[in-house]
Amino acid sequence: MALMKTNSLIALLTDFGPQDGYVGVMKGVILGLAPDATLVDLTNAVPPHDVLTGAWILHTSWRYFPEGTIFLTVVDPGVGSKRRGVAFQVEERAFVGPDNGLFSYVLVDATPDRVVSLDNSAYQLPNPSATFHGRDIFAPAVGHLASGVALGQLGKPVEPSSLVRLPLPRAEWRAGVLAAHALHIDGFGNVILDVEPPLTDLILANSATQALVGWRRVTQHVRTYSEASKNECALLRDSSGHLAIILRGGSAAQMLHLRRGNEVRITGLRSPV
Amino acid sequence: MALMKTNSLIALLTDFGPQDGYVGVMKGVILGLAPDATLVDLTNAVPPHDVLTGAWILHTSWRYFPEGTIFLTVVDPGVGSKRRGVAFQVEERAFVGPDNGLFSYVLVDATPDRVVSLDNSAYQLPNPSATFHGRDIFAPAVGHLASGVALGQLGKPVEPSSLVRLPLPRAEWRAGVLAAHALHIDGFGNVILDVEPPLTDLILANSATQALVGWRRVTQHVRTYSEASKNECALLRDSSGHLAIILRGGSAAQMLHLRRGNEVRITGLRSPV
Amino acid sequence: MALMKTNSLIALLTDFGPQDGYVGVMKGVILGLAPDATLVDLTNAVPPHDVLTGAWILHTSWRYFPEGTIFLTVVDPGVGSKRRGVAFQVEERAFVGPDNGLFSYVLVDATPDRVVSLDNSAYQLPNPSATFHGRDIFAPAVGHLASGVALGQLGKPVEPSSLVRLPLPRAEWRAGVLAAHALHIDGFGNVILDVEPPLTDLILANSATQALVGWRRVTQHVRTYSEASKNECALLRDSSGHLAIILRGGSAAQMLHLRRGNEVRITGLRSPV
């Protein structure tokens, strides 16, 4: 299958930040095993220990990478504990990382073909540390996969249904109002809500719908940022299909004092029976 | 021409920041189309929506990249509006991005050979979103270019003179004083002024010249950072040839409370007739 | 030797930060000379001018990169002054950068085979600036090395013992107490101390040992982050083998108001005779 090519594409997602050598060292380990691999940072700026944000970014991204891509994902507060390290294949791509919920959205998106726990020490660095499995276990697993080792070699098979799935936020109908939440706040201050298609489109198609954030109302509906009035937030279908609150040329999150997890009520739409 | 090689170099400049998967996703799209391309981040930390800073960084950088380089540049507050997406060739390099002034300096530096608007949907992702043309239109255009598609295939020819050019800051003589501006403040706090060679060198060669920032004077002239006295700002020819105000081991911008666009008056030089 | 391969791996370490095009431009220069090189960012977020932090990150990282790797390291407050630019080989890897102490730890780790000063202008950009040797001298040196030029071609031989070595922080016994220091604070807020193996392990094996930070005591000893009680700092062997103070799910540095260089006293261990 596609993963067996030597010229592999590897995408990294971590909470390691830019200021240490942690990401660089993992890349050194990988390239020592698979010198021809192409490495891409998906992001290394997941907030520290924020497994759910890591999971969300993976969700909105992974299918834009070609078949054969190997995802090295490390947001790993439980490193060295009994949480498993795993690797699995899904839709001709591979994922490697801690089994702590980081794959929660991917596992909703698709069903893995094959899952293993990373317990074969032949494919780890010698004497792995208790605190940096990214370097000592996950990066070597990825490097070996990229150099042609079969996923099944990395360790014992794992029942796919046993993989950790975190409860995922999802807007709920409550007395005729859709109680949504700020799922993610991006670097521009756009607030992405836990409202997916086709509900996103239903809401935007009805000009009576509003978002309520405390006592503030968001009434504008726009298709693009530049359609929005300045200094007034608006509702928009974001590039992942989710409903989002945006502010033209500014940060909606800042204007509305919204943080991840905060409630946003959507009114004006009849709840589905 | 050089662009037709399969082993293309692609340089990215965006305002997407590190914390989302936006840059990574564009790279996934590109590498799906051109698996052998080499990707380099020029910068992804242009201040949000700051087209002019993006244009400036491009200006000081693009000729250091080899012929054949494709620049993917996305600072795009008008995404989804009527602003065009364009691609053009200049000095054996290609540029792809929104036609909103991001190329203003490049178009002063050189004259494009060929310009097209990105309207051929065969080279876009299916059903492009209204809010993320970086992923749905620009990255595919770059990926196709890198895989050997001719630039002319991407869309209809555009008259080069119709490309958007922003008014660019430029120091002006006013009553014997050169009224300059802080054009860019770099990560070290160096303040780069809108004064270019040969004027930079004329100013530095004359030991009587001073920079006035409000009531403060910068009188030191240095060739290198380490020549400067500590705790006192100095004038220096920066690596782009522009006149700059620097502080040894510190931030000149912070010491002088300078922000982009602020005026800096240069005295002591006779204005050219 | 390994360095002569055309498909070189190049690792960058700088204090240039993300917001300018400085790192990108160096990569453009390198890839113009060595189009097949693989570039990896070790980190570009060394605090501005902080040579010792750059040296430390290099120390904990370089041996994880494969033989043949070329390190381009630029933390260079003395750019353009009489400080030398150098290149050297050690354990089949090469290092290129300013001779200002940035290699202090690497030179403790191993002895270079061959050192040259970068004075051969044939391998520099024409008319190098006085303020950006990263672009004009170091990147070209790396690009030429990666394309097969022998290190000895880059300039005159230098006596290895003449390379600048900074005094390195090291914990000291003082009246039965080990006076250690915060050597590095990583992106998670972990505080890494200047205590190395085997002393790290001796301290952690003795349950009576404590760290004193002002009037606060750190008494917990843990092997992994998840073993630690919440809201209480703990001592741990970090992934580089150094003793570290950590806080589960938070920043130990913030909780203890520790900054780099601050003293941390370790008690409860008998000093070795």
Percent helix of chain A? 10-25%
Q: Name the shape of chain A in a single word.
A: elongated
User: Mean pLDDT of chain A, rounded to whole units?
Assistant: 94
Helix and strand element order of chain A: EHEHEEEHEHEEEHEEEEEHE
Q: What is the number of beta strands of chain A?
A: 15
Based on secondary structure, the structural category of chain A is alpha+beta
Strand content of chain A: 25-35%
**Largest interface, Cβ cutoff 8 Å:** A-B, 36 and 31 residues
In short:
In chain A, 20% of the residues lie in helices and 26% in strands. Chain A is α+β, with helices and mostly antiparallel strands.
How would you characterize the overall build of this protein?
The structure is a homotrimer of 273-residue chains. The radius of gyration of chain A is 21 Å and the shape is elongated. Chain A has helices at residues 22-33, 51-61, 104-109, 133-146, 199-205, 252-255, and strands spanning 9-14, 38-43, 70-74, 85-90, 93-98, 114-117, 172-174, 177-185, 191-193, 210-213, 216-218, 220-221, 234-237, 243-246, 263-267. The first copy, chain A, is built from 6 helices and 15 strands. The first copy, chain A, is of the alpha+beta class and 273 residues long. In chain A, strand 4 and strand 5 form a beta hairpin. In chain A, helix 1 packs parallel to helix 4 (133-146). Chains in contact: A-B, A-C, B-C.
What key phrases describe this protein's structure?
nine-stranded mixed sheet; 6 helices; 273 residues; alpha+beta; homotrimer; six-stranded mixed sheet; 26% strand
